[in-house]
Design a protein that fits this description.
The chain is of the alpha/beta class and 299 residues long. 43% of the residues lie in helices and 17% in strands. It folds into two domains: 128 residues, Methylene-tetrahydromethanopterin dehydrogenase, N-terminal domain (Rossmann fold, 3-Layer(aba) Sandwich); 158 residues, Rossmann fold.
């Protein structure tokens, strides 16, 4: 008799994400068990309780999903999970805090796809400005884009000290070179856009970050991707369903929240399904997530 499949959902947040719970059931897991308010030092014990209670055949039907809101903590938790395992007590692990890894992967993969399709270019050497870079989605998108060779600028909307510290940490951890730039005033944004090839907008919902007048000054701008689905949208003129559609008042192409969201959904679902179907344990974080998102677009 086949063992029941179980996904152990570990999060430092007060609540497990209903989105992640629904996705896990849709992917085929029989049971999804949340563990909330989990601290980093509790991860090893939880992991070993999960794996030691099952036979090697049972572990193949088990996975650990790491949620939360902090991308750095999620990676630390993933590493703690890995360190707590040893053969034959090993299961798959998938980190996706606040959906940041899968959404950022989908966003950058969409940008890369349209950059190649419409301009015959890749991300290498392109100036990428990220608005909302202090959040988990913006930060993850910055890391992914930089790993593809882009020159990434984290746009500061307030005092930049906290963002500069994050950039310093990520630069050291991932061997990249993120920069923090001023985007507080309208004039600062216009100056920044003069030399920007790509804009990624991951700002909080319902906040317009760039208006039509500012976009009209961005002569080098090629692509704008915006994940905001709540009016007003993050970037004026980027339709929710836009998938490489020209933006009004600009020659740039827009990628909207629903187009990004559809790829994010497919990516997360496929990774959860791979946790159940793979012959060997899988480790999924933002790099492997990005690789799958681009593969889904290629096919």
């Amino acid at each position: 008799m086949e063992k029941v499949s179980i996904l152990h959902l570990i999060t430092a947040s007060k609540n497990a994400s209903p989105f992640d719970v629904n996705m896990a059931y849709d992917a085929g897991f029989d049971q999804v068990v949340p563990y909330t308010n989990v601290s980093l030092d509790e991860v090893v014990a939880l992991t070993q309780d999960a794996i030691f209670s099952r036979s090697p055949s049972g572990i193949k039907r088990e996975g650990i999903f790491i949620g939360g809101r902090d991308i750095d903590l999620a990676i630390q938790m993933l590493n703690s999970c890995k360190g707590a395992m040893f053969n034959p007590f090993v299961c798959s692990i998938f980190a996706d805090p606040s959906g940041a890894f899968t959404t950022a992967a989908a966003m950058v993969a969409k940008v890369e796809f349209h950059l190649q399709q419409h301009f015959g270019l890749d991300l290498s050497g392109k100036a990428v400005s990220i608005f909302g870079a202090s959040g988990p989605l913006g930060g993850c998108a910055a890391i992914i884009a930089a790993q593809q060779g882009a020159v990434v600028q984290l746009v500061a909307h307030r005092a930049s000290a906290q963002l500069e510290q994050k950039a310093k940490t990520w630069n050291t951890q991932y061997q990249i070179n993120l920069e923090v730039v001023d985007g507080i005033s309208k004039a600062a944004k216009i100056k920044l856009l003069e030399f920007t090839d790509i804009v990624l907008c991951a700002a909080p919902a319902g906040i317009e970050v760039l208006n039509s007048a500012q976009l009209s000054c961005a002569k080098s701008l090629k692509i704008v991707a915006d994940v905001n689905a709540v009016a007003p949208l993050g970037v004026a003129g980027v339709d929710l369903n836009a998938d490489g559609m020209q933006i009004n008042a600009s020659s740039a192409l827009g990628i909207g929240a629903l187009a990004i969201g559809q790829l994010k959904y497919k990516t997360q679902l496929k990774l959860l399904q791979q946790m159940l179907s793979a012959d060997t344990p899988q480790i999924f974080e933002f790099k492997s997530t990005f690789n799958l998102a681009r593969a889904l677009l290629a096919n």
